[in-house]
Sequence to fold (227 residues):
Amino acid sequence: MKVAVARFPGSNCDQDALYSLREDIGVQAEYVWHGDSSLAGFDAVFIPGGFTYGDYLRCGAIASRSPILSAVSEFAKSAKPVIGVCNGFQILCEAGLLPGALLRNAEQLFVCAPVHLRAENRTSLWTQGVDRILEIPIAHGEGRYVCDEATLERLKDEDRVAFRYVGPNGERGEAYNPNGSTDDIAGVLNEKGNVLGMMPHPERATRSVLGLSDGQAILKALTLVGV
Fold:
């Protein structure tokens, strides 16, 4: 398994992703530049967080037009694993690989804190091993997931809500939704289930000595590809 970690001007979580994948998950990982147009030799893609292009226009809007996203789109169509975290989630939505959009947090404040997540889908590559409540950090100012009513119903009907924000015991409530996301949604899947976008940072929660390790439950999926 070899994972491409995409780098854009303004990425700031690319090193977190690279080292957590290599050292804590145990897969090969290499950077690919946003201007590259090929993902030949890679088995999966990680689009990290940050502030690509200074978040001008909209978060992820400019990055979504980078050459590497054309390759990611073809990659996704072939059912290979793609994960976009935080700004990476925004990029995937802007590129049309996932439905919906990410807007300013409801409180209009940047939020940096651990949150609890419940896997709503238990059958996709990314979520099949997540059978408990996870504690994962967030760090964003524009993480409020929104979509129209028809899209929300389709996501629920097709079991494409990957994660929801919940309390420590799995309970839902306004107090546990850190940004005002529609229906407490923290992450969504594409139709095939191979593309995951999520605002929380699993790559920042893969080593208990640094405080949290629950991110491994999500990223360990990469070790199962092809098994």
User: Anything to note?
Assistant: The mean pLDDT is 96. The first helix runs from residue 14 to 25. The chain has one domain: 2-224. The chain has five helices and eleven strands.
